[in-house]
Amino acid sequence: MKSNPSIKAVIFDISGTVMDFGSRGPIAAFVELFHRHGVQVSADEARRPMGTHKIDHIWSMLTDPEIAERWQRATGSAPTRELLDELYPEFTRLQIEVLTQHCDLIPGVLAVVDELRSRGIKFANTTGFDSWMMDDLKRLAHEAGYLPELWVTPDVVGKGRPAPWMIFHALKEMNIYPTSSVVKVGDTIADIEEARNAGVWMVSVVECGNEVGLSRDELTSMSESERQDRITIARERLAAHDPHYLISTTADLIPIIDDINHRLAAGERP
Fold first, then answer.
1. Among 2, 112, 131, 208, which residue's beta carbon has the most beta carbons within 10 A?
2. How would you list the strands of the sheet with 151-152, edge to edge?
């Protein structure tokens, strides 16, 4: 007998959640952008604003005191909004080039979305990428069998995370309400804030996401103690922002849907 779950929709992030194990594609573009202007930034520095609209991400990096000082030393001038307007088109070209190298689906995602479909649960994506960065990514996702109802980008709604507008737009397009019947799945602090502002359930993924920041091969090549230390630190960073659930990867989502349905039946809300 087909189940009739209370959860009606799932909103996924992209990098580190359904594609690109370790969310490495965006980081490579940010690091290279700064490198081309003579400014060295680490992957950890580039990851801090992850999940936000990419133009906001660049501005967060430029206004980080240590990076801003390096920028001034390298270029002779302090970062300004005018500089941001110059850098963003350069970044978008870099990001489009890099994304095609990081479009692998995270293991277990197809099984999860197949189960969602069998339960009549719709799913969509929100992201920090603008729409013109997404053509190759969407094509490769579709070729791999990942077919969400829609992809929502900041330029479509006017503002990226932590604002809730991308989630609200997706729900309007899918005709899904109330927000208590929706689950957001993502790998960054910005995802948690987006979910909280939208009034939906939040599930944070740890091992495949931005906070661990390693490919599957890099993660499995570590010693057990090193791997667990890295995962524990990432889990604690996300837990400090109070998502409703923490899971290893998106492959672990379905039991969480079941648990949320029990909580909804008991009268709980996000």
1. 208
2. 151-152, 122-126, 9-12, 182-186, 201-205, 245-247
Mean pLDDT of all residues in the chain?
94
Q: In angstroms, rounded to a whole number, what is the distance separating the alpha carbons of residues 65 and 74?
A: 14
Amino acid, single-letter form, for residue 209 = G
Cβ burial of 54 (10 Å; 0-12, 13-18, 19+) is buried
pLDDT, tens digit (0-9, with 9 covering 90-100), for 135-171: 989 999 999 999 999 999 999 999 999 999 999 999 9
Question: What is the residue range of 32's domain?
Answer: 25-99
Examine residue 67 and state whether it is found in any structural domain, yes or no.
yes
Shared-domain flag, residues 84 and 175: no
Q: Write out the catalytic residue numbers.
A: 13, 54
**pTM of full prediction above 0.85:** yes
> Are 131 and 62 in the same domain?
no
CA dihedral sign, ordered 161, 164, 169, 175:
positive
Which CATH number characterizes residue 88's domain?
1.10.150.240
